[in-house]
Write a structure and sequence with these properties.
Length: 384
């Protein structure tokens, strides 16, 4: 087979992406190339990615293509850029094209697979502007019926697609995200202390990791943490909101100030991949009460890193944690507050969650994710 994969979301190919869709694509491609040396792979990057940063993707069965117009994308319409991409794909004579981000698939008449990670924009439209929502709706209406197979990371996301877009269930394949083996390596006290020093963290901290945006329920976490601080006034807890700033970051900073939490809330920004395990390991609890998730990769990363988890009782999250975390109503500040207190007041509960979570997530592996994806590629290819 000659398989094309859109790698434009990988912004840091030399080190690997730590979070998001870029992380999924990076792990997918890295493991595909490791286990499959017979099929041909054509990897598509933006021209802005430097050649020297792609060394780990270079091997005999790989061809790397740069979309030459990426630097002009702010000046070129979506319609025009899509047709330029389509022309390049046709020229490469692919047997199958995989778009690991559904809204980047251009009009393409040959066999194709897409990955739909979540449907946040459709399940929580109030968090997006009308233009974003209408564009996403238009893309979904065109693309979902067009592709041969849709990969989703959870049964919850599969059910959402069927419900919202009337897609045939046979065309959707659930393939869980994987988990990098490095998360199972126990962080030493020295590594944890070094991370605390690097990010100016005190002895006890509650951790969130993700894009700092309203859809991640940052406001709910801040208000719950405010109540938590009032209840544990003698203890010096911090709330670490780690991750890239989203479009609502100024609103979030304003709320932190209004709640008088400026000294207690830490915003360290993007966390490098090598810092994640000690950062998770040093946390009292990983707090992830988001409004909607198609999977929730940081949750299983925290579990593997020996950190107890509080997360939402909605979307894919109950499926992903399988009872090995405290579940809360993300719309209830009281629920989130009570769960934080439980973790602090009942250390045995926290220990039980650590042990159960670490055992549960052993089933998630990128090797298995890639094997299932490769089987799907072959099924699509052989279905003439």
């Amino acid at each position: 087979m000659r398989i094309g994969i859109d790698c434009r979301k990988i912004l840091n190919p030399s080190k690997g992406e730590a979070v998001g869709i870029g992380h999924y694509i990076y792990q997918l491609v890295r493991h595909l190339l490791k286990i499959n040396t017979t099929d041909q792979f054509v990897l598509f990057f933006d021209k802005s990615v430097e050649q020297r940063r792609l060394k780990k993707f270079k091997q005999d069965n790989v061809k790397i293509i740069f979309f030459p117009f990426s630097e002009y994308q702010n000046f070129v319409s979506r319609f025009y850029s899509d047709h330029l991409v389509s022309a390049i794909l046709q020229r490469e004579k692919l047997d199958l094209y995989h778009s690991p981000c559904f809204n980047t698939l251009p009009p393409y008449q040959k066999k194709s697979v897409i990955t739909v990670h979540d449907l946040t924009i459709f399940k929580c439209p109030e968090l997006f502007c009308k233009k974003e929502y209408l564009e996403a709706q238009k893309i979904a209406d065109i693309i979902l019926p067009q592709v041969n197979k849709i990969i989703v990371p959870s049964h919850a996301t599969k059910n959402d697609i069927i419900e919202m877009f009337s897609v045939n269930a046979q065309n959707i394949k659930v393939i869980s995200h994987g988990l990098d083996k490095r998360f199972f390596k126990k962080a030493t006290d020295e590594q944890i202390n070094a991370i605390k020093k690097k990010y100016s963290l005190q002895k006890k901290y509650i951790l969130f990791l993700g894009t700092l945006d309203l859809r991640k329920n940052i406001s709910g976490m801040l208000r719950a943490f405010k109540k938590f601080k009032e209840r544990t006034i003698k203890d010096n807890y911090q709330l670490v909101l780690a991750g890239n700033p989203g479009k609502n970051i100024e609103q979030i900073k304003k709320e932190i100030k209004q709640l008088n939490l400026t000294k207690q809330v830490i915003l360290p920004g993007y966390i490098e991949a090598e810092d994640l395990v000690p950062l998770f390991s040093g946390a009292v609890v990983f707090l992830f009460p988001t409004l909607y998730e198609g999977f929730g990769l940081p949750v299983i990363e925290a579990m593997a890193s020996n950190c107890p988890v509080i997360t939402s009782n909605t979307s894919a999250l109950p499926e992903i944690v399988d009872g090995k975390a405290l579940l809360v109503n993300p719309h209830s500040v009281s629920d989130i507050f009570k769960a934080l207190i439980k973790i602090i007041d009942y250390p045995q509960l926290a220990d039980d969650l650590r042990q159960a979570g670490k055992e549960w997530v052993k089933q998630f592996s990128w090797e298995e994710t890639v094997k299932e994806t490769l089987i799907l590629y072959k099924q699509v290819f052989s279905n003439k």
